[in-house]
Amino acid sequence: MARVAVIGAGFIGSSVSLHLLQEHGKSVQLTLISESFSPDTTSDKSTALMLPFDVIPPSGGDGIVEGVGDPEEWLKDTISHIRGLHDSPEGGLMGISLIHGVRALAEQPTTGSLPWWHEHAYGYRTLSTDEVKSYNIPSGYPWAESFSTYVVDSRLYLPQLLSKIKALGGNTLHSKIESISELTSKYDIIINCSGLGSAVLASDSTVYPVRGDIVSVHAPWIKEFTILESPTSITSVIPRPNDVLLGVTAIPHEHSTEPSEETNQLLIRNGTALVPSLKTAKVLTSWAGLRPMRSKVRLCIDSSYKESVVVHCYGHGSKGGCFHWGCAVQVGKLLHSAIIEKSNSN
Ligand SMILES: Cc1cc2nc3c(=O)[nH]c(=O)nc-3n(C[C@H](O)[C@H](O)[C@H](O)COP(=O)(O)OP(=O)(O)OC[C@H]3O[C@@H](n4cnc5c(N)ncnc54)[C@H](O)[C@@H]3O)c2cc1C
Questions:
Q1: 197 lines ligand 1 (CB under 6 A)
Q2: DSSP alpha helices (H): ranges in 55-194?
Q3: Are 208 and 186 within 8 A, CB to CB?
Q4: Distance between CA 314 and CA 180 in Å, rounded?
Q5: Which of 156, 255, 272 lies closest to 215, judged by CA?
Q6: How far does the centroid of ligand 1 lie from the alpha carbon of residue 209, in Å?
Q7: Phi–psi pair at 150, nearest 5 degrees
Q8: Organism's domain of life (predicted)?
């Protein structure tokens, strides 16, 4: 049996754990170790729309991965996994819904082509000028696209992943790991999915927080999402099964998650300007989360460890939701032979 430790119980660590248990069953003895579990991870603070709105294609420049994997495959695998759950009796329990809406940009994309992710959005099309007006889009946003995609309420989704992990025999341990070396004598395989914690655990000074604030309101009549993006701000109104999220800030290098009443009021004002009926919506709660940003997602074996096989999977920034299951599949592929080898030798 291969002894496996996964560090981190956000989107990434939870899905890596579940995928390994589903793939290898009793050949792995898996422990999910985390300083925090749902509802206290960054993943719980996510909007968790299943699309990455990046302008740069994953293959553009020198890529967005350090190590192995193709982000378009990660996205495809994640959407396919979420679609399967959405269409099953579990979909509601896991907080997954399929929503339609509009995203408008202050600057028309200069590439002249459709965004790289458009094939993974259902019914994607660009809107005419008249259609843009009909959506109450302000005049500074001349270009818009409409599509449907999934949104996941991670506060429902993550506890369900955890239940499945336990049902398959996985253990959980509430603990802060100070160094990966602490674990090498006890585990054959260690997978670091600690997000921002990797600044310490992987001695990686290139991971940094990008704070995102969100206000959650009760407005069940809102069925469509609306997103406005300019180079300096994002206004989003995102309906989920049990609330509507008004967002969102993106403040680099901000480490605090202290609530800001001023920011919340701004998000409510911006959301209401976009969707006036939100004026009567009751505020439920608000929060701030820290996206684990890095110029590239790091998904690779760390060959500096000799005693155990150590894999890093962190730095998903604003895309950990829409890449999570695909990354779990990728980690599974990377470790497949090591797990078989260890489970045969122990
Ligand atoms: C406001 C906001 C909106 C977002 N919207 C979207 C979106 O629409 N779509 C999308 O795809 N993504 C979105 N994201 C990004 C997404 O939420 C993140 O990329 C994702 O949550 C990262 O997941 P993770 O598992 O890597 O990190 P985390 O959720 O931070 O999990 C890391 C885990 O590691 C644990 N840990 C850390 N250090 C240690 C240690 N030393 N010892 C033990 N455990 C440790 C933590 O306790 C935690 O459990 C958004 C994020 C925010 C904040």
A1: yes
A2: 71-86, 129-134, 154-167
A3: no
A4: 14
A5: 272
A6: 10
A7: -90, 150
A8: Eukaryota
In terms of Cα–Cα distance, which of 296, 242, 225, 237 is closest to 271?
237
Check if 155 has its Cβ closer than 6 Å to any atom of ligand 1. Answer: no
HSE-up of 32 (CA within 13 Å, CB side)? 29
Q: Specify the residue for token string 């069925």.
A: 223
Ligand 1: distance of its center to the CA of 255 in Å?
14
The DSSP secondary-structure symbol of 234 reads E
Q: Which domains does the chain have, with CATH numbers?
A: 1-95+153-207+294-346 (3.40.50.720), 98-150+208-293 (3.30.9.10)
How do residues 74-113 score in pLDDT, each as one tens digit? Answer: 999 999 999 999 999 998 899 999 999 999 999 877 666 7
Cβ atoms of residues 76 and 120 within 8 Å: yes
DSSP labels, 34-70: ES--TTSSGGGG---BS----SS-TTSTT-SEEES--
d(C-alpha 5, C-alpha 15), whole Å: 13
Helix (H, G, I), strand (E, B) or coil at 192: strand
Predicted confidence band of residue 59 (pLDDT cuts 50, 70, 90): low
What is the CA(259)–ligand 1 centre distance, in A? 18
> What pLDDT is recorded for position 58?
66
Q: Whose CA is nearest to atom 13 of ligand 1?
A: 318
What is the spatial distance between Cα 43 and Cα 272, in angstroms, rounded to a whole number? 26
Judge if the beta carbon of residue 7 lies within 6 A of ligand 1.
yes
CA–centroid distance, residue 292 to ligand 1 (Å): 6
Q: Which of 28, 29, 48 is nearest to 38 (CA)?
A: 48
Q: Is the CB of 198 under 6 A from ligand 1?
A: no
Q: Answer whether 38 contacts ligand 1 (Cβ < 6 A).
A: no
Instruction: Provide the pLDDT for residue 334.
Output: 96
CA–CA distance, 52 with 31 (Å, rounded to integer)? 30
AA letter at 225: F
Say if ligand 1 is within 6 A of residue 249 CB: no
Cβ–ligand 1 contact at 116 (below 6 Å): no
